[in-house]
């Protein structure tokens, strides 16, 4: 019985640490094509396969097209946000090449806590 309780506590600790990681703010600022970050900024093509560390990241294969909607700025300029089909998430800018630019002038805005939550099947996941 004690062993089962120890395993459950270990699973709870692992679950909690994954929860903290998946809600971590990646940057206080981001650049967008408009103040609401609704317009696509560019279309890019993956130059390498990418598998993100958690559910906030966009996974893709070499050659896939991604629409870019924002770029983190200041503290973490390497991550961009985009969509591929119905999937949406962060990815490293050095894993893609720009194919077409839609917005030439970027607007810098504060990020929101909801920018860093996992979205599954149209629902926010609060772990």
Automatic annotation (TrEMBL):
It is a single-pass membrane protein. Residues 39-101 form the SH3 domain. InterPro entries: cTAGE_MIA/OTOR, SH3-like_dom_sf, SH3_domain. Residues 1-22 form the signal peptide. SUPFAM superfamilies: SH3-domain. GO terms for cellular component: endoplasmic reticulum exit site; endoplasmic reticulum membrane. It comes from the Eukaryota. It is found in: Endoplasmic reticulum membrane. Keywords: Coiled coil, Endoplasmic reticulum, Glycoprotein, Membrane, SH3 domain, Signal, Transmembrane, Transmembrane helix. Pfam families: SH3_2. One of its GO terms (biological process) is endoplasmic reticulum to Golgi vesicle-mediated transport. PANTHER family: MELANOMA INHIBITORY ACTIVITY PROTEIN 2 (PTHR23158:SF38), MELANOMA INHIBITORY ACTIVITY-RELATED (PTHR23158). Interacts with MIA3. Interacts with the COPII coat subunits SEC23A, SEC23B and maybe SEC24C. Interacts with PREB; recruits PREB to endoplasmic reticulum exit sites. Interacts with APOB. Belongs to the MIA/OTOR family. Plays a role in the transport of cargos that are too large to fit into COPII-coated vesicles and require specific mechanisms to be incorporated into membrane-bound carriers and exported from the endoplasmic reticulum. Plays a role in the secretion of lipoproteins, pre-chylomicrons and pre-VLDLs, by participating in their export from the endoplasmic reticulum. Thereby, may play a role in cholesterol and triglyceride homeostasis. Required for collagen VII (COL7A1) secretion by loading COL7A1 into transport carriers and recruiting PREB/SEC12 at the endoplasmic reticulum exit sites. This is Melanoma inhibitory activity protein 2. It comes from Cephalopterus ornatus (Amazonian umbrellabird). The gene is Mia2.
């Amino acid at each position: 019985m004690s062993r089962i309780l120890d395993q459950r506590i270990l699973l709870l600790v692992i679950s909690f640490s994954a929860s903290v990681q998946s809600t971590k703010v990646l940057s206080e600022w981001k650049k967008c094509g408009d103040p609401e970050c609704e317009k696509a900024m560019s279309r890019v093509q993956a130059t390498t396969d990418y598998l993100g560390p958690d559910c906030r990241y966009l996974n893709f294969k070499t050659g896939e097209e991604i629409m870019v909607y924002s770029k983190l700025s200041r503290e973490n300029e390497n991550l961009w946000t985009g969509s591929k089909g119905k999937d949406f998430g962060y990815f490293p800018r050095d894993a893609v090449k720009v194919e077409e630019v839609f917005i030439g002038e970027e607007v810098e805005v504060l990020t929101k806590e909801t920018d860093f939550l996992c979205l599954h099947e149209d629902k926010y996941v609060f772990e």
